Give the backbone structure.
Amino acid sequence: MPGTDRTKVSLSGGPPMILCRPQRAENIGSAARAMLNCGLTEMRLVSPPDDWKGEKARNASSGADALLDGARLFATLAEAVADLTHVFAATARPRNIVKPVITPRAAGVALRALVAEGHRPGFLVGPERFGLENDEVSLADTIVTANLNPAFTSLNLAQAVLLLGYEWLEAGNVAPETTHLGRAEEPATKEALMGFLGRLEADLLATGFLANEGRRPHTVRDIRAFFQRARPTGPEVGLLDGIVRSLSGRNKRT
Amino acid sequence: MPGTDRTKVSLSGGPPMILCRPQRAENIGSAARAMLNCGLTEMRLVSPPDDWKGEKARNASSGADALLDGARLFATLAEAVADLTHVFAATARPRNIVKPVITPRAAGVALRALVAEGHRPGFLVGPERFGLENDEVSLADTIVTANLNPAFTSLNLAQAVLLLGYEWLEAGNVAPETTHLGRAEEPATKEALMGFLGRLEADLLATGFLANEGRRPHTVRDIRAFFQRARPTGPEVGLLDGIVRSLSGRNKRT
């Protein structure tokens, strides 16, 4: 289904597409092809297989080699999202984690609006077979779920990438109609937010709040889910940092 | 990207998907998977390769075997479309043939309307490499072309099938696109939130964070604005309360 040449498609690259722990090289190649179909050119890979840009990937990319050659590798998802302000994750609805869930269509519109406002959103797609782990989901702000045949919902990797990219492209003709937050209210970078969360968790370990090792991962996940969803601005992260420092007495200790 | 179970998706089968002279068995399997993702269950094949429902196709179908087993074979496209009233073909823009050209989105809406009026429309997708021949295009009423990256428009077979099926499904979806907050995700009452904020502010007075009387109203307003906007759930307010109590050492003091 080739496209027309009459449409104005921005080739500036669009938001990054992060593939987290993809399992098969040919799926990475197919995802690159789907991305380029939709004008998305920035691929990020978290722990891909060794042959991620080998022959299988190149064959499947059908000419989108440049995306494979330009892909950036990360050891962890946290590093891959560090510079982003909003992460939209295509994954199964997470259990026990509070996240907004929207359709690919709504996601396309939302990302266009965020980019127009100067933010840095990105897409995230989990591994083929098992999806994202809870710790990874906690790094996402929003879950993207297509309304598919409820008896058969599992899309392959490249198809999930295609739907995200396609709706991003389709949304390009839609004027953004979001609430303007204003310049001062830009969400903090993921790096700043994770720095705060790391200091908070260290303090909570010191005060005994995370003493129960069995419950600790669950509690940490709940804390991260809340602050991710709250999307504090840069100044708010500073405020939260100050609050935690004051409460924990670190001002006096140091 | 699994779908939700709350959406009403008709499983009556939808319009037939005709694959004309597909070249590779795995693409037929992937197309079956994409069809079933979208609730389309009637596959028609014109001159497929000999191994069209062999192991490669079954592996690629990821469990959509029933579509392969139920597929109907035809020697020519004319026979495959004989019982249909309208044929929507995803193919390159034909030369020297005058046909209306619409997007997948418009096609989804058009097919829904035709079915509602009692007609029998169908989708048609051409071979992977060369597209439909002119004699075959002449059997189509309407050409379906997605507005893709003009520099890289070629979709693979299953992806073309997915976009057609996805837009067919979307055109019938009555589910809202907006954020779903599930049962467990209800925001806490304002009373619970204000209770938390009151305790937090008392602790911050005690630790000296709000010692500057001139700045205090401004800082309190910023704290309240953040937590109001974050809309914590009831359990999250409990978590935040526990964090503040632990950090401030109130657990020990009381």
Q: What stands out?
A: Residues 1-11, 174-184 of chain A have pLDDT under 50 and may be disordered. Chain A touches chain B through 80 residues (CB under 8 Å). The two ends of chain A are 64 Å apart (CA to CA).
